[in-house]
Design goal:
Layout: H1 6-19, H2 24-32, H3 36-42, H4 47-65, H5 80-96, H6 101-123, H7 131-139, H8 152-155, H9 157-177, H10 186-211, H11 216-248, H12 250-259
Helix pairs in contact: 1-11, 2-10, 3-10, 4-6, 4-10, 5-6, 5-11, 6-7, 6-11, 7-9, 9-10, 11-12
C-alpha cells in the first residue's frame, strides 16, 4: 500500500475533526441556549425503556426500509439537503404533538437519516449491494460523537469501531448465509443491540431537547435538522476514512489518524 499523500492527510484531518466533534447534547444546548439536563428532568417516568425499544425497532426498520431499497452505486453526488428537508418535516410533525409523538416519529426520522448516510457512503465509493457497505452505514449510528457521561478511552472513533467489529463480522457472516434478512436473526439482533445502546444516548438527548417547554413544531423541525446534520457530518468522516483505508490499508490510515 502507498503512503498517504499531503492531500490524503488533509482529508483525514478533516474527517477526524468531524468524527471527534461534540455530541448532540452539547450542540442542542448551544442551539437552544438551555442546558440539556433541564430537558432530562422534564421527561416522564419510564420513558427510557420505551425509547430504548423504539430505538432498536427504528434501526431494524431503517436497515430494511432504506438500505435495501437504494441503488447500489451513486447516480449523482450526495444530496444531503433533500434529507434535511424531510427530517425537518418529520420533526415538525413530532414537535407539534409533543413528546409522546417521538415514539411514532423516531422510525421515520431514523430511516431518513439512514438514507442520507447511505447516500454519502455511495458518494465516497461504497457499493450498497455489498454487506460491508450496508453494515458500515448502520455503524454510523454508534459513532455519533462523545456524550457528557463518556469515558474518553471508550469513545474514540477507532475504539468504537473495534468494539463493534465482532458483531459486524457475525452479522455479515449470517447475512451471507441467508438470502432473506430476518428481524429475529441472533447475529443481526446483537449488532442492532450494540448500535442501539449507543444511538439511544443520542435519541435520549434529542428527546430531552424536545421536552424543553415551547419547543413546538418549529422547535421539533430545528432539533431534527440538528440531529440529521450531526449524523451527516459523522458519515462524511466515517466514509472518508473507509475510502482512504481501501486505498492505503487500515493500519496505515489508523496510524496516521492517531498521529494527527
Amino acid at each position: 500500500m502507498s503512503a498517504l499523500s499531503k492531500e490524503d492527510l488533509a482529508e483525514l484531518a478533516a474527517a477526524k475533526a468531524l468524527l471527534e466533534t461534540p455530541g448532540i447534547a452539547a450542540k442542542a444546548a448551544n442551539l437552544l441556549g438551555t442546558p440539556i439536563e433541564r430537558g432530562f428532568a422534564l421527561l416522564p417516568v419510564g420513558w427510557r425503556d420505551r425509547l430504548g425499544q423504539a430505538t432498536r425497532d427504528a434501526l431494524l426498520a431503517s436497515l430494511k426500509g432504506a438500505l435495501l431499497t437504494m441503488q447500489p452505486h451513486a447516480p449523482s453526488p450526495a444530496r444531503p439537503n433533500w434529507h434535511k428537508l424531510a427530517a425537518a418535516a418529520s420533526g415538525a410533525a413530532g414537535g407539534a404533538f409533543g413528546l409522546p409523538a417521538l415514539i411514532l416519529e423516531l422510525p421515520v426520522s431514523t430511516t431518513i437519516i439512514c438514507r442520507s448516510i447511505a447516500d454519502i457512503a455511495r458518494a465516497n465509493g461504497e457499493s450498497l449491494d455489498t454487506l460491508p457497505a450496508k453494515l458500515a452505514c448502520i455503524e454510523v449510528f454508534a459513532l455519533g460523537g462523545p456524550t457528557a457521561g463518556d469515558d474518553a478511552s471508550e469513545t474514540g472513533y477507532f475504539a468504537m469501531r473495534s468494539a463493534l467489529a465482532q458483531a459486524v463480522s457475525e452479522a455479515g457472516e449470517y447475512l451471507l448465509r441467508h438470502a432473506v434478512m430476518q428481524d429475529g436473526a441472533p447475529a443481526l439482533l446483537r449488532l442492532i443491540g450494540l448500535v442501539a445502546t449507543r444511538f439511544n444516548i443520542q435519541v435520549s438527548e434529542k428527546a430531552a431537547a424536545q421536552a424543553v417547554p415551547i419547543i413546538g413544531a418549529a422547535g421539533g423541525a430545528l432539533i431534527n435538522l440538528l440531529f440529521i446534520d450531526h449524523f451527516q457530518d459523522v458519515s462524511r468522516g466515517h466514509f472518508t476514512v473507509r475510502r482512504l483505508e481501501r486505498r492505503h490499508g487500515e493500519q496505515a490510515v489508523r496510524e496516521a489518524y492517531q498521529r494527527l
